[in-house]
Design brief:
about 290 residues, mainly alpha, two-stranded antiparallel sheet, 12 helices, 2 strands, about 70% helix, about 0% strand, ABC_2_transport, transmembrane helix, transmembrane, ABC2_TM, cell membrane
Amino acid sequence: MADQVPTQSLASPAPQRATGREFPPQGQPQITGFNRIGLWSLYIKECRRFLKVQTQTVWAPAVTTLLFLVIFTVAMGRSDRLILGVPFATFVAPGLIMMGMMQNAFANASFSLLSGKLQGTIIDLLMPPLSEAELMIGIVMAAITRALMVGGAVSLAMALYPGVELQAAHPWAIVWFGLMGATMLAIVGLLASLWAEKFDHNAAITNFVVAPLSLLSGTFYVISNLSPLFQTISRANPFFYMISGFRFGFLGESDIGNTNEAVLGAAIGVGVLNLVLGFITYRVLKSGWKIKS
């Protein structure tokens, strides 16, 4: 009698399984709303990726940008040359800072998805419960973080360079145009990584689009010295407004204008441009073009 097991005890687990929580239908999302934890995890992952090689991703661009300043100031030869009422070194420094920030924002964002496609690890970005908007925000925010780090390193080097005086005449312009410039290139970099199928495609955009637009945007000169035709072409370059607006924040003068009201139109314009680029990139990312096929 002691060895007999009650029949009721053997059948007892069945009612517990029947009354337990049922699994949802296959394919039905369980994380609704904004996935803050997932977004933060992606952002930290992207930041750690470029910080592991910070000598290459942060400090090397700062040194390269400083070399531009050294070469151009030595080439000019005259330390008393004034542009917009300030020495040439002081004039060119904000443009170089902005140029370094934008180029590195593009480099960081354009590498994220492209490396995953080529190495076969893009599934690590597509499988987690992240929406397309959260994926885009995480990658773009990491690129902006790198741009700000590069900008800080370049600013420190510029401040220590003889003949350069960095003063915040309009702090709002420094913050706004700095963030908008980094955001624009981060979004463009993400869009480029969706299109590119190999690193040569990415390098082609860097060499034939980003670099020329950066160097021909008034970084080293004022566009009033150009012919009317090339002045019109320069004003069609969005990089021109980023760099000139950023320079206005330091010097209080720029090719756009010398008052807050004159620069405010450019500030609104670059903000609208980023919204348009962000929407386009979001739609392309949502379609799964070249990443889910």
